[in-house]
Design a protein that fits this description.
With about 400 residues, the protein is of the alpha/beta class. It is built from 13 helices and twelve strands. It is globular, with a radius of gyration of 21 Å. It binds pyridoxal-5'-phosphate.
Length: about 400
Amino acid sequence: MKNMQASTFPLADSMRRLGTESAFVVLARAKALEAQGRSIIHLEIGEPDFDTPEHIKQAAIESLRANRTHYTPAAGIAELRSAIAKYVQQTRGVSVLPDQVVVAPGAKPIIAAVLMALLNPDDEVIIPDPAYPAYRSIVTYVGARPVSLPLLESRDFRFEIDALEAAITPKTKILVLNSPHNPTGGILTAEDISAIAAIVRKHDLLVISDEIYSRHAYDRAFASYYGLAAMPERTVLIDGCSKAWAMTGWRLGFGVMPLSIAEAATALILNTVSCTATFVQDAAIAALTGPDEPVQEMHDEFLRRRRLLVDGLNAIPGVTCRMPGGAFYVFPNVSAIEPDDLKLADYLLNEAGVATLGGSTFGPHGKGFLRLSYANSEENLHEALRRMRAALATYKRS
Ligand SMILES: Cc1ncc(COP(=O)(O)O)c(C=O)c1O
């Protein structure tokens, strides 16, 4: 009998164009070290360490008890799509129809469905660099071309508006924005948004505005591109429950988009996952319509940790770290110690037991930086800083 495990059946060529996400790769390596008995502090994965608020869990339990365990319409149940439309009105000041809302198991599949629904081979998509890896991965997977828009440390990881205009060609179809930003914690200002919106209108582009960290803006009120640009006919809003309500494992994301794109994205969801778990959709209604205190408490805790981590990193010789305006990441510059950020991240994992991500895994302009998530306790953050300081003091560049 043929040994199926040893067989190397040829994969589709397109698989060579699909990327990965370093957070999941490093998490697996860190877990393997833990299994060998090593103590590891996890600053690599981007998920709140808090428990999902009680009223949301309760809603899911009640939903299960009521046997809400069957298929739903592919784009989501009507009650949730209405609740999302109301939430978007409240938080962005834009009035949208429930039919413009698409629900999926996470924001990630919405991003993929929208890109797949819109892109032809050779279309160009402008993507901030560094960026959340899924954008570039799906763009190259479908045969389109990602175009880098450098984020500058000197501008608190915002891009130059002139650089955006210079990156546009007749093939440019989509601009991806992500504010607050993964991996740098940078945010777009209201002034940035009006300048970007003017360029988008002039060049007839569509914007995918990934606002999944909208509840994690710290020093000033969150400036939403979706809300401020107020061009719902040429904007796709990406959001979800993962980061705001500590619900990463529940898998609930949503997008709000022009009707024709919503229909196409729904067709892709229908053909892949069919729909999102019914009781998870019920829990999402509780998240969106329930008390806001749990979100506020997490926000205040993140604020304290951000200060602790930034101050601690800046006290390490050779490390400089900007104060990020949002999300729950810091993006320190470590190039004075080691320009090869991947090598340094490896060293910190193996020698200090601190799991971080090399900035260049998010794009070439992340080179020389590390991404650290502060979704971890103050105690662990203190310990991570202590370990990093000691390990970096004896680091030898080869
Ligand atoms: C910028 C950004 N967008 C989207 C996502 C996807 O979130 P989820 O699929 O958990 O909703 C993430 C997760 O890390 C992210 O950082």
